Amino acid sequence: MRGLVSLTDQAWFEHLSALAQPHGGRLDEVNFWRPKDQDALRAIGTGAPFFLRLKRPHYAIAGWGFFAHWQLLPFRDAWALFGQKNGAPGFEAFREGIARLRGSDPVAPGARPLGCIVLREATFLPPERWLPWGPGEGWKPNIVADCGYDLLSAPGSRLLELLRDGAPPPELVERFTPLDVDARRWRSLVRAERDGQSTFRLRLLDAYGGRCALTGERVVPVLEAAHIQPYLGPASNHVQNGLLLKADVHKLFDAGYATVTPDCRFRVSERVRADYENGHEYYALQGREIRKPEDERAWPSREALAWHAHEVFLSA
C-alpha cells in the first residue's frame, strides 16, 4: 500500500482549511493544481492517500486527501469546475496566484493548461495535530514536488495512522455494483448534497474523450455527467455508473424516455411520441450503439444499465 507526500502551497492550504472548518475540517473534493507540471501523476493509483506537506517553517504533514483523477485543464475550466475549492477566494485571486508562480497569465491566448490533481475527502488538520516530516522520515531537502512511501512499514506507517478517521471514497473502487441503500447527505428537506460531482464530471469527460457517448457532440458546455442509477451517495459517482451525454439526451434518460441497453444500444420509449407528438430526432437514433471509453475499466456497468432499463425506462 503506497501513499504520496507532496509539497503544498501555504496560501492554498490556508484558504481551504478555513473553507473546511465549518465542515469538521473536511471538503468533499479539492483541486491540488500544479502551475507548471504537465506530466500525469502515476506514482500512486486511484483511491490512494495523498498527504499535504507544508514547507518552511512548518515542515509538517498538515492534511491529506484521496487521489481521484489527474487531468490537464484550461484555467477557466478548472475554475468553473471547482471554484473556491481550487484554493482561492475568487477567479482573479486564482488567476493572479497562477500567474505569479508561472510568470505568465494563465488565461492569455495559447496559455498552457493547468495540471490538476483532484483529491476526494480532503482533510485539513489543526496545527496541534500536524505531523513533523523531514530528513528523519526520508524526506530529502532537494525534493521539489513529492515522494512516495510504503504505508505498511516505517516511516510510512506513521502516515497510515493519520488515516484512522478516513477511508477512500466508495466510487473509487475497481467495480461498480448497483446500490441498495440511499446514502445521500441532505442539506435541507428538499435538496440532497452531491459530494464529488465535479470529480465525477471530470472523470467522464476524460473517459469519453470530451464527446457525447451517443451523438459525438464535443461542445463541452452542453455535455453532462449522467448517472445510470440515480445518485444515492458518493459510491454512485463510480465512472462505470456514468454516461457523458448531451443535456437534452440526459434529461430524456433521467425521465425514462430513453435508456441504454446492457449491450450499449440507445433505445427511445414510444411514450415520447405519445406524450409529446414529436421526437423525430431521437427516434432517428433508435438502436444506435453508444461510443464506449477506450479504457475498458470505464465502460458502463451492464448491471447498472439493466437496472435503468427495468426501473426507470418507460417501456409502454
How would you describe this structure to a colleague?
The chain has 316 residues and is an alpha+beta fold. It folds into 2 domains: 2-165, Archaeosine Trna-guanine Transglycosylase, Chain: A, domain 4 (Roll), CATH 2.30.130; 209-311, no CATH class. Helices cover 25% and strands 23% of the residues. The protein is built from 9 helices and 13 strands. The strands form 4 sheets. Strands 1, 2, 3, 4, 5, 6 and 7 form a 7-stranded mixed beta sheet that branches. The mean pLDDT is 93.
Short description:
This protein is of the alpha+beta class and 316 residues long. It contains nine helices and 13 strands. It has two domains: 2-165, Archaeosine Trna-guanine Transglycosylase, Chain: A, domain 4, CATH 2.30.130.30; 209-311, no CATH class.
- What would CATH call the homologous superfamily of the largest domain? Hypothetical protein
Number of helices: 9
- DSSP strand tally: 13
Instruction: Give the strand content.
Output: 15-25%
- End-to-end separation: 50 Å
Q: Which geometry do the CA atoms define?
A: elongated
Number of domains: 2
CATH T-level fold name of the largest domain: Archaeosine Trna-guanine Transglycosylase, Chain: A, domain 4
Structural class: alpha+beta
CATH architecture of the largest domain: Roll
Report the CATH C-level class of the largest domain: Mainly Beta
Provide the helix percentage: 10-25%
SSE topology sketch:
Elements: E1 2-8, H1 10-20, E2 26-34, E3 49-54, E4 60-73, H2 75-82, H3 91-102, E5 114-124, E6 131-132, E7 146-150, H4 156-162, E8 185-186, E9 192-193, H5 197-207, E10 223-227, E11 242-246, H6 247-255, E12 258-260, E13 266-268, H7 271-276, H8 280-283, H9 302-311
Parallel strand pairs: 1-3
Antiparallel strand pairs: 1-7, 2-5, 3-4, 4-5, 4-6, 8-9, 10-11, 12-13
